[in-house]
C-alpha cells in the first residue's frame, strides 16, 4: 500500500509538471493497486486490533483521495496556491478513529 501511495505522489508531481494525462493514468493505476492490497489486508485479519488498524488505513486513504480532489480543483487557478496546498501537513495516522 505504501508503494502505491508513493507512486500516486509521483503522479501528482507529474500533474504539476504539466503531464496531466500521464499523471492521472499513473494515479488511477496505483489507486487500484492500493485497493487490491487493502482488500488483502481486510481478508487476512488475524491479530486482535488489526481490524481497527486496517479500518484507520481505509479511512485515512479516503481522506487522502478527497485531498487530491481538492488539489485538482485548486490547481486550475494558481500554481503557487497549488504548491502551498500540496505541502500542507496530511497524515493518514493523524486521524482519530
Task: Give the topology.
Elements: H1 2-16, H2 20-43, H3 50-75, H4 79-86
Helix pairs in contact: 1-2, 3-4
Short structural description:
By secondary structure, the protein is mostly helical. It has helices spanning 2-16, 20-43, 50-75, 79-86. It has one domain.
How would you describe what is shown here?
This protein has 97 residues and is mostly helical. The chain has one domain. Helices cover 75% and strands 0% of the residues. It has helices spanning 2-16, 20-43, 50-75, 79-86. The radius of gyration is 15 Å and the shape is elongated.
SS element count, helices: 4
| Rg of Cα set | 15 Å
Shape: elongated
Q: What is the strand content?
A: under 5%
What are the secondary-structure elements, in order, as H or E? HHHH
Which structural class should the secondary elements be placed in? Answer: mainly alpha
Low-confidence stretches: 91-97
Count of strand segments: 0
- Report mean pLDDT, rounded to a whole number: 84
Specify the helix fraction band: over 70%
Largest sheet: none
Total discrete domains: 1
Distance between the amino and carboxyl termini: 20 Å
Question: Can you give keywords for this protein?
Answer:
4 helices, 97 residues, disordered C terminus, 0% strand, elongated, mainly alpha
Amino acid at each position: 500500500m505504501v508503494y502505491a501511495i508513493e507512486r500516486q505522489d509521483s503522479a501528482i508531481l507529474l500533474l504539476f509538471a504539466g503531464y496531466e494525462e500521464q499523471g492521472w493514468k499513473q494515479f488511477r493505476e496505483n489507486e487500484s493497486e492500493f485497493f487490491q492490497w487493502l482488500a488483502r489486508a481486510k481478508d487476512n485479519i488475524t491479530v486482535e486490533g488489526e481490524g481497527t488498524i486496517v479500518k484507520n488505513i481505509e479511512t485515512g486513504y479516503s481522506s487522502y483521495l478527497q485531498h487530491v480532489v481538492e488539489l485538482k480543483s485548486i490547481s486550475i487557478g494558481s500554481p503557487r496556491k497549488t504548491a502551498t496546498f500540496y505541502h500542507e501537513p496530511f497524515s493518514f495516522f493523524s486521524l482519530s478513529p
